[in-house]
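Sequence in, structure out. Go.
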Amino acid sequence: MTLSKEFTSKSFMARTNGKSEIDPQELDASHELPASENADDPAIDSASRASADSSDLQKLKVERDTLIDRLARLQAEFENARKRTAREQQDFRDYALADAIKTLLPTLDSFERALQISSAEKSELHGGIELIYKQLQDALVKLGLRPIPAQGEPFDPHIHEAIEMVDTSDAPDHQILEELQRGYKLKDRLLRPSMVRVARNPKR
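Output:
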């Protein structure tokens, strides 16, 4: 009985060469962690990718809206700057033109006085003065110069300057009786007020 047990033990040791042989696959299989339940689920991967794409798209939309708003603001600022520059240039031209025409107004006054003095004479000199005066007047009218109506008009302190108040019963109160010096406007800008005599008639 003892001999049989020893033989069996030696026979087993001979097969294993004194070592315990264990299949590595069995060992790995026994120690392998269980797989995640959702690791190979394609539906979850697709949902995750869709969520990421949606987030990226939302960010792009926000960036696009920001850039469009910035562009609109820049366009508005540029348009305002362009209009302001054009307005300033026009104001400068009008101011320069007004100064130039102001220097010519005394010349117009001299022509008018000369024509009044020589109005009774129908000489060649009178005709020449009248022609030059009309040419100068036409040129200034093309530039925007306009005479201010005065005689017979109601007195307006914005465009008329009263040199004298005349008591009279022949005209309504504050009516202009006489124009002493013609006033002018350049387009809508007052260059020089009319110097006038004004009626004073409290009864009318």
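Check: The chain has five helices and six strands. The chain has a mean pLDDT of 80.
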